[in-house]
Amino acid sequence: MDILQGMKTFVAVVDAGSFVGAMDATGLSKPAISRHINDLEQHLGVRLLQRTTRRLSLTGEGEGYLRRCREILLAVEEAEAELSTQSGEIHGRLRIGAPQTFGAMHLAALWGRFVAENPRISLDIVLSDRVVDLVDEGYDLAVRIGRLPDSGLVSRRLATTRMVLCASPDYLARHGRPAHPQELAAHATISYSYWSGGDVWHFSGPAGEVSVRIRARLHANNGDTCRAAALAHQGIILQPDFLIHEDLRNGTLLELMPEWRSATIPIHAVYPTRKQLPQKVRRALDFLVEALREPAWQR
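and the corresponding structure tokens:
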């Protein structure tokens, strides 16, 4: 049997969560995919997948074998990339993760240009606010917003974003405009669930550092939802300027207490530590750095 093809099919089935889902990734029919998996299990003498009518799950042996398959397939891809680089072309599949809102607002429009410039690279873009495990989940690269924890990942800074306190003119006309961070405790606020400070907002201003515990009337784990509530005049938000910069420009949201600053947050590209960075990843990194050199929200 073709062991390498069996490995590719096995990884595709796990990533897709089903034999049917793996058809698009592999270009194979469902019977062919089933045959590859069966042949692989017979060759290894172990069961890799538990199959029921409703779902697939990895066995203990399957989990260990999956990690090794990803490493082997990555090594093969890197070897091919080295050869293609020598001939002037870079090719291969590139799996990139990014936060949902940032990925949709500021990265989605870039990928068409990247593919046009690199026609032999195929992209797999996954948008999720969950922090993915790059190695175990097979990501080549991920964009992350916020201070990075100490890990084995390598990072490259792409840009920064500033947290801005703001509200709609209608809300401020009805409830007044706060002049000091402590006044936020008496206002309706809309809180982002993943904000590192929770419902305690921190500011730095003329009198030094100030922290205030807000009373959020709405919590959401999605910045778009917080923004929509503010545009509907429901309260004050603390959100990144990459999300609300157009609202600030057209006046549908007004910045509050600009002399009191909240956090400025880095935006990084992160990738697994490797002795030799694959050319396709380096190409994507250089592309993102250049594309975000003057980000739209800071122009």
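(Above: one complete record from the training split.) The CA atoms of residues 103 and 117 lie 20 Å apart.
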